[in-house]
Amino acid sequence: MGTPTNNQLCDIGFIGLGVMGKNLALNLADNGYKIACFDLDKDKVADAIAQDKAENPDGEPRLMACSSYTELLNMLTKPHLIMLSVPAGEPVDHVCHRLIDAGIRPDDIVIDTGNSLWTDSVEREAQYKGKFIFFSTAVSGGEQGARFGPSLMPSGDPYAWTRIEPVFEAIAAKVDPQTGRPIEDYAPGKPVKEGEPCATYIGSVGAGHYVKMVHNGIEYADMQLICEAYQILREGLGLQPKEIAAIFREWNEGCLNSYLIGISAEVLEEDDQETGKPLVDVIMDRAGQKGTGLWTAVSALQVGSPATTITQAVFSRALSSFKQERVDASKVLTKPEPATFSNSDHKQVIEALRDALYCSKICAYAQGFQLMDIASKEHGWSLDFAGIAKIWRAGCIIRAVFLQSIANAYENNDGLKNLLLDPFFVEQIGKFQHNWRRTVADAIMMGIPCSAMASALNYYDSYRCETLPANLLQGQRDFFGAHTFSRIDQPVAKKYHVEWSKPGRPQYQIKC
Q1: Same domain, 61 and 114
Q2: Fewer beta carbons within 10 Å, N or C terminal of the chain?
Q3: 395 & 482 share domain
């Protein structure tokens, strides 16, 4: 192939034309960018180009096929801007090395848009420094979001961001600045131009993927909480899936308005085409996971952040995988005697459950932002929590109306220690916590598992508790391991130890 003339050159190279990659490439094309495409699977490239032609039958081709990395570089304007949508891990490095072999230059930018572990991104920036600029951005929104407007969490070299920013702001989801609601008037070839873009620079390399990791952890918790509400309605009130769907749709008109509540209603309304039964009743109750929830739980443990509801959601998925053991256990382990909710009025039970779900959801988000706050200090990121809440208002899986209230909380107080301390959320939980407690208590008495909801309540009660039994725990540690303790009547830095084995048990200060 000869060297293309300037008017034949493409603006952006795109490598990896799977579901997400293809849709991001088409999104870029809708926003006026000409794309050079490459994938090891040539059928994926052909499929993307065919879809572009079908959606843009009378226009000039917007996606151009490349047969090699070298051809892709030759097809691009300089300095090159290349986006990757390949599986996390070794495939990212494989592509980077092939681009080096093909002649990529130091001022070219390679953007990883996959679900990479944030520490891998940090290592890659250092590894490829001097060869090209490695930049990473986390993408949320699934197939639909990638096609018409995702939430983007970019991080890396600040200079690179000046070149990437107009591209990402063009393709990102948009929010009505007056209402904080997503603008969803989209279709192929009709990108949303107005509104606040759900893309903001997160910070140095790795920060964006860390924020996305926590996003996914919150997503795990949110999904588990909704599922527990479903089980309480199904087993506690004996409602059928379509009845529960109607309740979810009603909730979706109020403070619980969110993408996840909306799709849960759609799933519950669907019938299985083979059996005619509700589809949810023929889906195996074994939940899968791809690892980002686990990464969040591990990170929370590593930095000492009490993300208990997020971690419990990960454990709930793990427990669901023991299907046959659960079937066997159900035949021998006893459960409470058949009972009904303490309040026999179904309407009041449903209202109480709505309030319990809302309060639990607040705690799950509070845990996620608390984790990001601790990690931000540890890694020197200076994360903008109001900005993060804003880019999650549209495009991403956890988009919800109350993210505007979270953004407001951090805008009003950028030093906010915990979302639960914001006056709005203090008032909200104060107003609804009685129903939260009653719902959890009734579910426990009836033997209906609500581990995430109960975990959220325990988190709230522990956080608001002035004195926890950790004083006894620290005494235990000092007894068997001489781990020392601080006294409430002395500076916390002073450490004390009791000689537990000696008569009279003398207590003395440990000099540190």
Answers
A1: yes
A2: C
A3: no
Q: Are residues 500 and 416 in the same domain?
A: no
318 contacts: CB under 8 Å, gap ≥ 6: none
Do 305 and 184 have their domain in common?
A: no
Q: Where is the domain boundary, 463, 483, 501?
A: 463
Domain end marker among 205, 227, 256: 205
- Whether 312 is covered by a domain: the verdict is yes
Q: Is 143 a catalytic residue?
A: no
Active site residue 494: no
The rounded distance, in Å, linking the Cα atoms of 106 and 113 is: 20
Catalytic residue among 212, 228, 361, 390: 212
Domain range for 490: 470-510
> Each residue of 266-279: b (16+ CB within 10 Å) or e?
eebbeeeeeeeebb
Q: What's the CATH code of the domain at 483? A: 1.20.5
Strand order across the beta sheet in which 63-65 lies: 63-65, 35-38, 12-15, 81-84, 109-112, 133-140, 151-155
224 and 307 together in one domain: yes
pTM for the structure as a whole: 0.91
Number of domains in the chain: 3
The closest alpha carbon to 225, from 253, 260, 250, belongs to 260
pLDDT tens series, the chain, 512 aa: 445 555 679 999 999 999 999 999 999 999 999 999 999 999 999 999 999 999 988 888 999 999 999 999 999 999 999 999 999 899 999 999 999 999 999 999 999 999 888 999 999 999 999 999 999 999 999 899 999 999 999 999 999 999 999 999 999 999 998 888 888 777 777 777 789 999 999 999 999 999 999 999 999 999 999 999 999 999 999 999 999 999 999 999 999 999 999 999 999 999 999 999 999 999 999 887 777 889 999 999 999 999 999 999 999 999 999 999 999 999 999 999 876 666 568 899 999 999 999 999 999 999 999 999 999 999 999 999 999 999 999 999 999 999 999 999 999 999 999 999 999 999 999 999 999 999 999 999 999 999 999 999 999 999 999 999 999 999 999 999 999 999 999 999 999 999 898 888 877 777 55
Report d(CA 251, CA 233) in Å as an integer.
14
| DSSP, res 336 | P
160 and 247 in a common domain: no
- The backbone region for 77, taken as left when phi is positive above 0, alpha when psi lies in -120 to 50, beta otherwise, is beta
* Residue 164 domain flag: yes
Amino acid, res. 281: D
Instruction: Give me the catalytic one of 219, 228, 361, 390.
Output: 219
Structure-block tokens of residue 169: 């702001």
Q: Does residue 165 sit in the same domain as residue 296?
A: no
- 112 shares its domain with 85: yes
Distances (CA, A) of 165 to 121, 200, 370: 19, 8, 28
